[in-house]
Amino acid sequence: MDKLKIPENHSGISKTLRLPENIVEDVQNLANLKNLSFNRTIISLLEFSLENLDDNDKIALNNKRI
Predict the structure, then answer these.
(1) pLDDT (tens digit, 9 = 90+) per residue, 39-63?
(2) Which residues of 6-32 are buried (b: 16+ CB within 10 A; e: fewer)?
(3) Concatenated DSSP letters for 23-42?
(4) Tens digit of each residue's pLDDT (9 = 90 or more) over 12-43
(5) d(Cα 29, Cα 18) in Å, to the nearest integer?
(6) Positive or negative, the Cα torsion across 48, 16, 58, 8?
(7) List of long-range contacts for 9-15, beta carbons under 8 Å, 24+ apart
(8) How many C-beta atoms lie closer than 10 Å to residue 41's C-beta?
(9) Which one, of 11, 39, 34, lies nearest residue 24 by Cα?
(10) Residue ranges of domains in the chain
C-alpha cells in the first residue's frame, strides 16, 4: 500500500463539512501525532483517497472534468 505524503503548504477555498464525531477524533489524533493542523491532515487524506480511487471511479471523475 502507498504511504501518506504530506506536502508543506496549499492555497484554497473554504468549505464547511459535517463529519461524524469518531472521524473527527481520529483525524485530530493523527494531526496531533504528526504535529499538523486538522485541515492539513484532512487535505492529505482526501488527496490520497482521490489518487487511489477505484479504476471505474477514476474514469467517471476524469470524464466529468472534460
Answers:
(1) 999 999 999 999 999 999 999 988 9
(2) eeeeeeeeeeeeeeeeeeeeebeebbe
(3) HHHHHHHHHHHHT--HHHHH
(4) 788 899 999 999 999 999 999 999 999 999 99
(5) 18
(6) negative
(7) 10/40, 10/43, 12/43
(8) 21
(9) 39
(10) 21-65
Helix 21-34 to helix 38-51 angle, to the nearest 10 degrees?
100
pLDDT computed for residue 66 by the predictor? 62
30: which 3 cell numbers? 493523527
Show the cell assigned to 40: 492539513
pTM value is 0.74
**Which residue reads 487511489 in cell numbers?**
52
pLDDT > 90? residue 1: no
